[in-house]
Structures
1.
Amino acid sequence: MELHPKVKNILLLDSEGKRIAAKYYTDDWPTNTAKEAFEKTVFSKTKKTNARTEVEVTALENNIIVYKFVQDLHFYVTGGEEENELILASVLQGLFDAVNLLLRGNVDKREALDNLDLIFLCFDEIIDGGIVLETDANVIAEKAGINSFDPNAPLSEQTISQALATAREHLTRSLMK
Amino acid sequence: MAQPFVKKDDDHDDELEYSPFMGIEKGAVLQEARVFNDSQVDPRRCSQVITKLLYLLNQGESFTKVEATGVFFSVTKLFQSNDTGLRRMVYLIIKELSPSSDEVFIVTSSLMKDMNSKTDMYRANAIRVLCRIIEGTLLTQIERYLKQAIVDKNPVVSSAALVSGLHLLKTNPEIVKRWTNEVQEGIQSRSALVQFHALALLHQIRQNDRLAVSKLVGSLTRGSVRSPLAQCLLIRYTSQVIRDMANHGQSGERPFYEFLESCLRHKAEMVILEAARAITELDGVTSRELTPAITVLQLFLSSPRPVLRFAAVRTLNKVSMTHPMAVTNCNIDMESLISDQNRSIATLAITTLLKTGNESSVERLMKQITMFMSDIADEFKIVVVEAIRSLCVKFPLKYRSLMTFLSNILREEGGFEYKRAIVDSIVTIIRDIPDAKESGLLHLCEFIEDCEFTYLSTQILHFLGIEGPKTSDPSKYIRYIYNRVHLENATVRAAAVSTLAKFGFMVESLKPRITVLLMRCIYDSDDEVRDRATLFLSVLGGDGTLDTDKDSKEFLFGSLEVPLANMETSLKNYDPSEEAFDINSVPKEVKSQPLAEKKAQGKKPTGLGAPPAAPASGFEGYERLLSSIPEFAAFGKLFKSSSPVELTEAETEYSVNVVKHIFDNHVVFQYNCTNTIPEQLLERVNVIVDASEAEEFSEVTSKALNSLPYDSPGQAFVAFEKPAGVPAFGKFSNTLTFVVKEVDPSTGEAEDDGVEDEYQLEDLEVVSADYMVKVSVSNFRNAWESMNEEDEHVDEYGLGQRESLGEAIKAVIDLLGMQPCEGTETVPSNARSHTCLLSGVYIGNVKVLVRAQFGMDSAREIAMKLAVRAEDVSVAEAIHEIVANG
């Protein structure tokens, strides 16, 4: 029996409920059709709610779904009905803030699609096979954002915050040696 | 030159629907993926192509085996580039492609190299990828590195290794178990997440060792866990340990409760919630234990964060099912949540209030709900309707306002499931509260006047046919029913015809009018409707002699003698041929699975969905089953059937339980056998009973079970004769005998030759409780006083040291097998004395009433004063004897 918190999926949908990125960690939705149907239900159930300031939550088909919207982007994290919704909320918040950092505050569909690689990496750094890997947005963004500050790239091309992050990383690395 | 202009135009379009992936096509992307094979790797370009591939996969596009292999092989070439960003994408795509085992070898060396790289990011990710795709044999090769990684200085690397361990434990437990020492070191880590992952893995490794888990919990609850997530885990493990200890009969103070309680003061809200939930879910939680948890949840109710409010109201809603009193303190906060923006929260608040509310608040609540119902979705409405149904059963006096509410919402718009929930609720109320019948039936009649759901119409018509004729003025329903014959589709028309016939048959005065109405139906355009009308006309037109009356009654109201499920399978298997379908060939043995039933009990269908007759495991079912077996038909009326007694341990090869059926001068043992081995077929299954320790019984007959295939339960019977009309006791030892045949699992066919074998079952006893039928009396005091006071037998007993009063009372009730009256079987948690009222009928149809007074002293010694009144003095004495010997 596994007692650790489990995340069933992470969804990022657009303002029409279309999938921008999604990652499923269980077999509850075995086919793409089942996944799309789930996303459709989730979207239609939540689209009218106001989840722009606070993380919102709902129950659907024995699942707990926490969600937050910004611009034309809809973020969802799903867990089982026994799950602690505050843990799910902390995963969602981590994802949301990390994406915000990575997209430098311009969080909308266009920016997300332009940087889809970062979104995928972000998903990958938050959850590993349903297990919470990291919830601190700064750590997630740093790990996922690694390719945007290629050490070989000239410094002028990096933003200040990236430069700082690189510097911090170098510092921690030298400290730990 | 024209290019900038075109680009501008593009930009303009893009503002409507922009996507860098617009018009993306799998074939083209696979072509682009050739760039991976270039001798000079362009990291930027390659990253883009990988993103496109990931996008396709993410949108649900599937790659054929050949395509996936092709991409995988070319991706592996990218390991020559040292661009960190590209490498990160390479890791990601390898995981998504999930290469097959014969392809994995090509990347293992690259990944192993990365696993030992100086770059932390490489190490962490290489571990995660490698562990995702690796096989057992290769795993042993890299085990050394993984153990090292667990204790790596960098928390990211260490977490990667630990989480991978959690995944690997499912496939290669024996390897992961060897890492215990390293994992233990991880628990001491300064990093919150490492601690969390290490704790999860350590517990997972030790989960089957009860003692080790208990020790782990014991040492950690003293406070070395810093991470909130790890603390949540620890709370979950603690609850598990508490449950285990209770199951293994350890009594006394609840261990670790203090730890849970201290977590309620943790600074992280997720820990507080986890602890509060753990406390509310403790087995047999007392109100004193509950209070601190309820208090923190109450604070959450007024939080500005919806997730917190939801979490709190959801937990309190669960608590209200078992401890409604404990939640009443939160009612004021709960009422303000009815207008919560988040409708999930509002619905949970309403249903909680419905459970905790008292009789006087019902009307006020209904008013609030009426306003609320118009703006929520159907699925929430169903939850509310179900809560109202149980409220009505709880406060029968309030049925009027609840029924009005239900009939109002029945008239409003709504989907099928919602309407069905309302109709089911009305039906339940009609069944449970006789006073509500007439108004309820009229509401249903009005509903079918304008009902778009054929299923609901037919079900309501059927229900009307059974209940309608029994009302004071059956004629008023006829109009509604006959209207259906004019206005509806064929299915509903046919149902209406049947219902009319039932009225005509049951209500003599209506017969002529019904006959006229039915006459009109014989010209219906539909075959079934015409057939039914003709058939019922001839039934109604019968000459009215007693015999045909009985036959037609059986025909109209009788239920099918065979279980519907069996009938369905038999009909499916029936091969249309010369030979007519024989209903007698349908097995009457019900597939009863006590365990599954127990689980399903909470979800029993109610209302219309429930089968009209009790399933065959109930008394009526047993009665029907036994009377259908010729050998037992002559035994007369069944007096009592016991609940099933298990004769085997759980999870043995053959699972057997027994039901004791008591007749006036016979006892029949019904052995419910289940074969749990898929590779075996049992034949000629019989139970050999040794009754040498039961002198008053003599075996008269037995009925073997011809065949017992895997997982489809069957019954064998043994019948004994016993002295008529009086109880007889004894102990029986049982042996299951049978012929085993091997079954080929692939074809499902059994071999011809079998081997005889036997299987020892546990002993079975016939005790006095088997002769007592639980019969409740509505007013105990009246019943008690109507019995002759002089026949009362009073005596006092010491019951010795007990855990609680409730436990002692339960023991006495079980011993006597009597029905507790007026809810006196439940004891207030801190009471030191209690009176329990019991009633029953003893064999020979002797009514028995018992008044048992319990008292407990400081040493938990329990004394009982037992007063028995029975219609027969000897029976009252017998009851005392039972207690004295028990």
Note: Chain B touches chain A through 65 residues (CB under 8 Å).
2.
Amino acid sequence: MASLRSFLQCNFDILRKTFVILFVNVRDALNQAMDEELERDERVFLLGEEVAQYDGAYKVSRGLWKKYGDKRIIDTPITEMGFAGIAVGAAFAGLRPICEFMTWNFSMQAIDQVINSAAKTYYMSAGFQTVPIVFRGPNGSSAGVAAQHSQCFAAWYGHCPGLKVVSPWNSEDARGLLKAAIRDDNPVVFLENEMMYGVPFELSEEMMHKDFVIPIGKAKVERQGTHITLVSHSRCVGFCLDAAAVLAKEGVECEVVNLRTIRPLDVDTIEASVMKTGNLVTVEGGWPQYGVGAEICARIMEGPAFNYLDAPAVRVTGVDIPMPYAKILEDHSVPQIKDIIFSVKKVLNM
Amino acid sequence: VQNPPSPLLSLWPGGTRMVVSARSFADFTPQASFPIKKCDLHRLEEGPSDEALLTREQGLQYYRTMQTVRRMELKADQLYKQKIIRGFCHLYDGQEACAMGIEAGINPTDHLITAYRAHGYTFTRGVAVREILAELTGRRGGVAKGKGGSMHMYAKNFYGGNGIVGAQVPLGAGVALACQYQGNNQVCVTLYGDGAANQGQIFESFNMAALWKLPCIFICENNKFGMGTSVERSSASTDYYKRGDYIPGLKVDGMDVLCVREAIRFAADYCRAGKGPIVMELETYRYHGHSMSDPGVSYRTREEIQEVRTKNDPISMLKERMLSNNMSSVEELKEIDLEIRKVIEDAAQYAISDPEPSLDELCNHIYARDPPMEVRGTNPWVKLKSVS
């Protein structure tokens, strides 16, 4: 047995390269996307805390400094407001910066630069000044990092016109959306998830192509269904799929929509799904009040899909509290698969 | 007719026109050297020259530019009081030597960013008076098509016009980073006021600019008041040229256009030599209050304002220098004043009569280089169109 296992392990690498489908985790997908875009366009550069010599706080930028050097991979001091402003200024003057926030919690120190200097400038200048910048970093809850390090900013940034806000779930999303974000001439807020970094996903040969991009502003139906629509983004998409697998055994077929982009929101895809299934549950990690799910429900109310609803649309969200530390409390602060299943059954009156 | 090389003068309708005066050109002194106030230095062995050479052409150009800014700001005051300009309006009269001196000492290919007291810089960076006034009156002929207003005017190598106090400083350092990255030997002039000088993000910018030796000239325009708060009441240290600490600094007489010019030339050379950033403090004064909603006399006396006007006005000082050195005549300068008056009147006429932006423009310019998209209006039935 042991020799068989080691035989398989030695040959796995060869097998991996021979097959057209690769397993790539989200971290590596992000890393490869940045590497390819840095190579493609010399105006692209990365700055942030520990992105260069430390290989990235979460190792997302591993190897990039070694390959591209000090000019293009820049370690900054711990001064978010300053370096975010510097990044925006560099974008004004013709470069294409990727500004990393170690987590999006720290972006609050710099939020004025993201909103007032980046998001609004194209409009205020009546189209004269573009701001081709990507702000990226891990967003939302992690594991045991407590209240100040666990906030989800999808709703905050999703609120602002002039920004594009993107929230990938898997490696395909991470790769395609990051490449699209870097190539986009607008300010893009790129919300990653730390707990997804180590999760591997299949990537086809097509997805590994250096020009593979996923259009910003388009959601993806990850699973077809007929009884109810689950709309989600980032890590919760995985929970929705897990919940759907459990519910399928009870004869409930869930359609799972992966938003991919928070702003501009792909209402058409959500509406089409709701008009097909007649029921809607939104699932997110962030707080409920004034959140992503609240926006989706409001849009459904205001649009043609309302007439197709058999029951009120509901939201599954993080609990409306600052994130606690103790594991048992933390586990009960975020949506779990059983919460999704429970909500689906309630909506379907099961 | 001589055509001085300045790009500013290409703005004037029909090119530069020289005055027909009683005296011929041969009578005027072509150039003269003027002693200028020595700059206080911080961490510098030597500073700018204490003498400035001024040619007749330059003198006339500086006079024309500063007088235009002066008249333009006074016209804006008038239009604001007539309620034709609304919202925020922060006027620059009194500080003209700063904008003119800086522009005289840098190249058009260099970069500049400032805060909200920006009309003067918008002009010196190449935007016509009529486009500035029309932006203030919110018309479609404004430099930002009426969508920006007083604080959000942009031009090539001019990054506004910024409304959030201090935010422009990291932005300017970022422009300097781009200059360094692109290896184009350009510098970025990054302006802020005495009120902004205590902002944390400015010190963050100082740190990174010094660390990475960015070609950034940080300039504090110290007009002694941050809104209604005097520098003594806001700042534990009012030596703004020293606030860069490890960054060398100069304190400059901001009312003397030649002093400013020599200082900025010195600073630009310093940055272009790859020595890193430098801080300048321009001591200047604003005649108006902080904005049009501030009469400007509750925190300072009318006597103080009047004293600066009579003893230290930047335009008067230049005029006196030129006249006393026979570089121009009273008639010639008066002729220039009349020309400027006409330009301002025409511009004001334009700014009043130009139509407001079309409502079709409302949702445009959200995203750059994107296909047209729909934008929600005030209610769910209103679907508006947005193009890039």
Note: The radius of gyration of chain A is 21 Å.
3.
Amino acid sequence: MKQYANVLDRPISKGKQEVSLSGFAFLFSELVQYNQTQVDNIAELERRLEDAGYAVGTRILELLCHREKGNRRETRLLGILSFVHSTVWKVLFGKVADSLEKGTEHEDEYMISEKELLVNRFISIPKDMGAFNCGAFVAGIVRGVLDNAGFPAVVSAHFVPVDGQQRPRTTILIKFAEEVLQREARLG
Amino acid sequence: MAAIYSLYIINKSGGLIFYKDYGSAGRMDTNDSLRLASLWHSMHAISQQLSPVSGCSGIELLQADTFDLHCFQSLTGTKFFVVCEPGTHHMEDLLKNIYELYTDYVLKNPFYEMEMPIRCELFDVNLAQAVQKDRVALLGR
């Protein structure tokens, strides 16, 4: 194996494609539990999980731009959305997201939906925590990717009840900043 | 037709953390179920001492004329036991499945406090499915 003088010259390896689901579940459970001890209310907890996800999003964007897209940069809204929906989801969760939709009520809203987020697979939210969703972590990842790609947005995770199904599905709601829409309109 | 009367899960100190009855035959009010749990915990511990053979890990099967009681103890001391009709087969497999569901939907839940009563929606849903599948498989045999 060729030895590199400078560690920065080493090629970025593909890495292990598979990680133990149980290992990840326990680690994520510990992350949530640790943050619970540090906060007083649920909104704070959600914000902390989001911030943790933001850090992941920043790094995954850099890595994937280099590895998957040959250092090309997305400049269009639909481009970056389909990048998140397909590439980022495939790398993080092993499958593309279930659906990508444009919001009907507002121009600046888009939704990525998933029947059940991987991070929520083993988690049952107690009744007294209301609408709290550990998917805030994933919302943070999406916000990290979008923010650093030049598309600032407010991203949140919501449970959406589905008729005929006991478990609600999860929707990641992305609300883009005004400047993004203006730039998009200028580009035509 | 062989069927389960009730399921109990007790923590390592003998406290009842989960109780579910299936049908009126196994039904008990809260106090009785708590009493039974600690009773079984003590009996299980005593049986380990009474055994003439060293290295005994406790009672696995109790057979009476109107019911059978199958017990599974995990390495951490959590006991899963099920009261069922005499002659029911494959209860050990069911108990192992329930243990797996416990490790998945209870232990990986960040909102579950160790040794406390189990209040996890996903555990209840998957447990119901497992018991139902077992019941259907039983009818098929």
Note: The interface with chain A takes residues 104-105, 108-111, 119-123, 125 of chain B (CB under 8 Å).
4.
Amino acid sequence: MELREFINFPGLTFPGLKITLLKPDIFFKQWYSWYSKIHSSHLESPLEVFHNHVYRLGIPDSHIVLMLADDMACNYRNPKPATVFSHKNMELNVYGDDVEVDYRGYEVTVENFLRVLTGRLPPSTPRSKRLLSDDRSNILIYLTGHGGNGFLKFQDSEEISNMELADAFEQMWQKRRYNELLFIIDTCQGASMYERFYSPNLMALASSQVGEDSLSHQPDLGIGVHLMDKYTFYLLEFLEEVHPASQANMNDLFKVCPQSQCVSTPGHRTDLFQRDPGSVLITDFFGSVRKVEITKDTINLTSPVEPPIKRSGSSDIQIESLTYVDQLPVAEIIHQKPKQKDWHPPDGFILGLWTLILLVFFQTYGIKHLKHIF
Amino acid sequence: FRLSSLIGHISTCPSLIGQCCQRHPGSVDEFQEELVIRPLHSGDIYASFQFRTLWDTDFLQEGQKVSHYRLFPKSLGQVLSKFSVRELHISFTQGFWRTMQWGQPFIPSPPGAELWVWFHDTVSDVDGNWKELTNVLSGIFCASLNFIDLTNTVQPSASFKPLGLGNATDHRFLRYATLPREIVCTENLTPWKKLLPCGSKAGLAVLLKSEKLFHSSFHSQAVHIRPVCQDEQCTSKAWELRQTLNVVFDLYTAGQGKKAFRSSIYLNCGKTGELFELSPATPLLSQAVVLGDRRTYSVFDLTRAETFGQLRSLNLLLRWKGDGGEMLRPLLHAERYVAGFGLQTGEIHTVIYNNHPYRAFPVLLMDSVPWYLQLYIHTLTVTSKSRDNKPSYIHYQPAKDRHRPHLLEMLIQLPPHSMTEVTVQFERALLKWTEYTPDPNHGFYVGSSVVSALVPSMVAMSTNFTQDQPLFSSFVPVKEESSYFVRVYTEPLLVNLPTPDFSMPYNVICLTCTVVAVGYGSFYNLLTRTFQVDEPSLPLAKRLANLIRRIRGVPLLT
């Protein structure tokens, strides 16, 4: 399954040079299952091709959250390691040389996905694994994998339902985590996933209607799996035509992959979106434009940082030379005293046991007879 | 007869890139890079890249916050100061190092990811710092290091002494964890390359192309940060960041090389002319003693223009001349496997070989076993040459379910020319159903054992520290001349735990509901149903006839 999010950041200004970042977008995706146990394998690399398109259209890697559930490129079964090709002619290695996967392997779970969307991550989570969006960001989410009526499979062991997704988007709306959100899903019966959305400013695209299956495009006999799904293939072909200044709008995107090419009927949903889809540019979600203003005035730069002064005082104190530690001090190890364990107060069990023993003792003998016993 | 070649081109470097890796006059950064190419007897080529940044500063000094970074990467510098790290060693490896075929590596590493950190004495909550550090590093290296938690972290009591400067070694400040299942791919190489001062745009790093690097029998990339001596007198400390990449190639490789400061390629010749022919021949030959082995190296210094000749390119051609001579047999070698059958019990066997003909030496074996393999330490046996061998030091920390793994450390004396076997029996635990991975039938990994030893050396090692020493021989500090320190990692184990059938809850619910519905439903009906005799309804004609018959007073039809 693949997930993609694009996010817009507010404008940032740098001293001296005016650069206004209009729409840096975050691209968030997740890729699932090369060797699914039940169904025939789908090697889906729209992730990587999207990666290329997204890069080409201006979104930096720091704004992309990429989730790959399986390791395809460096898997031992891949005859050409570190490469993933979108076409069996092997012309374009979509895994590239500078890909950065944020969530991989077992980290791709429904819980992590929803936590990234809603922002409820543990405080020690690094920035590259977070969705740092605010109320002026546009987000693109792209999901692909195996799914059914109202659910999408994660890792062959759990599912995410359309209701969970709708609730997550509502949480994002309440917390002002997006301005506009485009949701693309390429699974069987994909339209069922956006049926339950109820938050504003959501637009959704799916590769097939309820009751229909999405089909895969071409097999690669060298690997033995299919490389891409039909809908994604034609979607990417469409995106090849898009350049950063393109005026293509959403209505063109809805026409991608009609039934004659895709066998399934792609669907879309725009009722929650406030603007007219015809006026929404593709680059609003897929690309990022930075406006650069060149100023002709002279700018005074602050003086460079002084290199740290060598600590002359310490050399008088530390006259003896420092030494490296002995790597295997046999004598020291043999005579090492066992580590003193910290004293802990007695466990509840021990306390209970002793209380029981004392109670029984006093019940048997009674307090007043104690002096005769001792 | 096999042919292998490495081709390097030099284009005229634009001045901006060329200056990037130079030493700044008056500053305190220094960068050095090195590539050692060693043809192995099995026909493979072992290439070891080492990039070292030396920086004279003190991250941990109070009051002076380091904010100006030149060659040293800022992301790592901030990590070191925030978590008060004294030493950090992290490695990502794909494949297993075959000691018997390839000899000893310069920098050993276990399969998967390995992280061990020495914290400073001033840290009060080591576990908290450790947890945050692993999360931060997982973001930096795009790896799932956040899976390192208390269930797979151990605190070795005698192994993994600091490789840097220092005198106090309280093992309470050491943490070690390994993730044997971690995969290494382009997404780990990309941030690793970004830590280099020039990235992958200049210097030897230009040779690092992911399609070539991962198409290999062994690939290991590591980052080692430690305090070292700044100069020969060793009166002050400097921070050293060493990034190493070890690859074993099987086939034709090609790459590009550009100029960089203090960049050199060392080519291990063995006895020149006997094993293979090297062209272009270089007059620079140096000898270095590494891992107890004195070898001759041909040195190509990339900062000197003479290396490149007329065509301004460096083409290295190695031609093998038939089968080579005998390989030096590694003196220390270890193996590990699981014995037994079934899904209840098993036995872990660790076998350590001492191939020295007449010297015995001690080794420190460290085993970290996850809690779900419950070890029975009373069945621990150590035998050498079919006799019981009692270890001089044993440290065992039992596991606590879901909290702590087993830690077993033993100092064993290996008799000369012998095989020592350590066996311990275990029982497999049944996990809770949420604790199984999505693919539990693959099995669960047990991290490699670590065997640390001071192996007696055939050749006298040099204990002097010089600035001009090649990088590959200066990684481990040498304390005495007659032995060298070596660390050998065994194979990781893959054990199957008793796995429930995850479709069973659904099956059970269906079956139970069916039985209940059929059984209870029938019983309920039998008890509560009443029966009444019902007269069949007559067709219309007969009903009308009956009406008339009633009027007439004649018996009715049925």
Note: Residues 504-528 of chain B form the longest helix (25 residues).
